[in-house]
Design goal:
The protein has 224 residues and is of the alpha+beta class. Helices cover 36% and strands 13% of the residues. The radius of gyration is 25 Å and the shape is elongated.
């Protein structure tokens, strides 16, 4: 319900009673100071703003139900991205339906060098409960190693859990010999691309990262 109010400047304006009671409306539109918080970017109700707000809550707000597994676990938000305009300038618009901002390294925080756009399937593969195994310079999931080696991923998981074998030990025990082509980066990247889901670089990285660079960051182990 609205009521007719007179501002101190003499202007008459219809105002919601709720806004008056809560103190949200104290002046007419002409008297309000420019560039108030919610009017600075005009994107408060957009999906990209909701994405940013969700990240801020789980990394910076101890009262958030997700804070314990993000901010409370050391997953922080960089100072630059605590400002929405800076965040939006770096990540850009949402590139496809269902895309969210996800971290490349799940043990690091939200910052330009560690995030990309990803779909829900990729998010599921990036959870902390997903086990990765190192072998031949790659860090892959059970399912991905199964696709590459021809060994069922349940068998890989069972041998790792029951006997503590690494990937080399599993292949040796099962007498599996891999052709050199099976571990070529292009072959590995193709498997990861098909199994992990859809991804895209954020806006600030589009000129620096192509798809292969992203997969390299995801699965190639650092040189010793």
């Amino acid at each position: 319900m609205s009521v007719c109010c007179t501002c101190s400047c003499g202007a008459v304006q219809m105002v919601q009673i709720y806004d008056l009671v809560k103190g949200r409306t104290k002046q007419c539109l002409a008297c309000r100071p420019p560039n108030r918080g919610k009017l600075q970017h005009g994107m408060t109700r957009t999906k990209i703003h909701s994405t940013w707000k969700s990240i801020v809550q789980r990394t910076c707000n101890p009262n958030s139900r997700m804070y314990g597994v993000y901010g409370g676990a050391g997953v922080n938000l960089c100072e630059r991205w605590k400002n929405f305009q800076s965040f939006y300038s770096d990540v850009g618009d949402i590139p496809f339906d269902g895309a969210t901002v996800e971290r490349l390294n799940r043990y690091e925080g939200y910052c330009p060098h560690n995030v990309l756009w990803a779909d829900r399937r990729w998010q599921a593969n990036n959870r902390s409960i997903v086990v990765l195994m190192d072998y031949a310079g790659f860090n892959l999931t059970y399912r991905e190693w199964g696709e590459i080696t021809g060994v069922h991923h349940y068998s890989i998981k069972a041998l790792r859990n029951s006997q503590g074998l690494n990937m080399y030990g599993i292949l040796t025990k099962l007498n599996v010999s891999l052709e050199e082509s099976a571990l070529q980066p292009e072959r590995v990247f193709d498997v990861v691309r098909r199994l992990r889901g859809r991804i895209a670089p954020i806006a600030v990285n589009k000129d620096k990262w192509d798809e292969q660079e992203i997969f390299k960051r995801l699965v190639v182990l650092p040189a010793q």
